[in-house]
Amino acid sequence: MGSVSISHLIIFIASLLVAASVAGTLIVSVEDVSSSVDQQSDSLTQQIDTDIAIISDPSSPAVYQEPEEDENGSLTLLVKNTGETTIPTDGSNLDVLVDGQYRTGIDIEVVSGGDRWSSGAVAEVTVDLDDGLTDDHRATVIVNGSQATFNFRV
C-alpha cells in the first residue's frame, strides 16, 4: 500500500511540474501577443492621425527647377500637414516617389507654422533629380502610410 502512495505522489508532482511549465509558456506567449497588439495599435493610431495634402500649383514654374551645368534639377512641393500628428522634419518618416521611382536627397523646410511641421503647417519638400524631366509627371509623398499625389507637366 505504501508503494502505491509513493508512486501516486511522484506522478502527482510530475503532473504539477508539467502543468506549471505549460502555464508559464502560455503566460509568455500571451504577453508577446499583447505586446504585438499594443505596437500595432500605436502604429495604426499614428497612421490615422497623420494626413498630408500637396498644395503646390501644378502650373507654377516654381515646382521644377531645370538642371544647371554642375548641378542636378530639383522638384519642390508644398506639403501641408492636415493631420493631428507633428511630422518630423528629418525625413525619417517621409518617402517621395517621382514617376514611380523612389527618390533620396530630400530636404524639408517648414515655411509656415513655426519651426515644427505640426498640424496646419506647410513644409517645402525639395527632391534632387539626377535627370531632366519633360512632359507629364507624377510625384507621390508618403508619410506614416498617408500619401498625397501630385500630377504636373514640365
How many strand units? 9
The mean pLDDT is 87
Outline the low-pLDDT stretches: none
Q: Sketch the major β-sheet.
A: 5 strands, antiparallel
Molecular shape: elongated
Content of β-strand: 25-35%
* End-to-end Cα distance: 98 Å
Number of helices: 1
Q: Which assembly state applies to the chains in this document?
A: single chain
Helix/strand order, N-terminal first = HEEEEEEEEE
Radius of gyration: 28 Å
Give the helix proportion (percent range): 25-40%
The structural class is alpha+beta
Pfam families: Flagellin_arch-type
Protein name: Fla cluster protein flaG
Organism: Halalkalicoccus tibetensis
Keywords: Membrane, Transmembrane, Transmembrane helix
Provide the fold topology:
Blueprint: H1 2-49, E1 52-54, E2 64-65, E3 73-81, E4 94-98, E5 101-103, E6 106-112, E7 122-129, E8 136-143, E9 146-153
Antiparallel strand pairs: 1-3, 2-3, 3-7, 4-5, 4-8, 6-7, 8-9
Describe this structure in words.
The structure is a single chain. With 154 residues, this protein is of the alpha+beta class. The protein is built from 1 helix and 9 strands. A hairpin with a 2-residue loop joins strand 4 (94-98) and strand 5. The radius of gyration is 28 Å and the shape is elongated. The chain starts with a helix and ends with a strand. The mean pLDDT is 87.
